[in-house]
Amino acid sequence: xxxxxxxAPSRGMDAAHDNTENHRDAEAPTxxxxxxxxxxxxPMLFAAxxxxxxxxxxxxxxRRVMELQPSIQPDVHQHGSEQMAGPxxxxxxxxxxxxxxxxxxxxxxxxxxxxxxxxxxxxxWYAHNVYDKLPPRDIPEGxxxxxxxxxxxxxxxxxxQANGERPATFGRYRHARFMPRAFSRQTVVIxxxxxxxxxxxxVAGAMAEGIPQTAAEATAAGLxxxxxxxxxxxxxRTSVExxxxxxxxxxxxxxxxxxxxxxxxxxxxxxx
Length: 272
What we know:
By secondary structure, the chain is α+β, with helices and mostly antiparallel strands. Helix content is 14%, strand content 27%.
């Protein structure tokens, strides 16, 4: 038997970039750890607008391209399998599909974990400008205090890009990949994982991705601006078509919509 192991993280439409990540299954219940077993917490990158959608709970799902592309629809085992794929794989959901013979198979694990694991959100951010020369690990947490003639003034140490235009006191842009755990403001718990072609997404899936269903809602959310589109061509688009355009905006060079790659579909809910 042959196992193709994939350990590099997948990338998808919510992965934060410098210029900014099929709803058919029933929700999987959060799995309680077995005796002697602990749930894992891992980071996941989101663009600013998608992190904002997670925060207001309009986004409860993300799609990330699988690095190893299945040849047919794979089976996904939520708890992995050390017996099939080796030590450590039991910590991840595992996708398996047949190979060239009945004794041959391929597999890859979902780098984001399995049902019940937690993901802490990394998103684009800024630090106060007095910390511009400091690496992220050396930036203090909490608030910055300074004495002014009218008394003590407190300002936040960091500003999240999802919050809108940053105040003048905040300095250079910081990519999401450089956000320390201490500055993450959101943690979610995985409620379901599956693998499917990108085109399997439906209206419910697009809405779960945080995509407004109508063009007017998309404009209001800042994803698109109909006023700058000749003829208002967004007017008759569906949420899936809007998702397609957003996907191509972020992933169009490496994994365009028309290539229909297999993706990990990771469903989640915010931790209290």
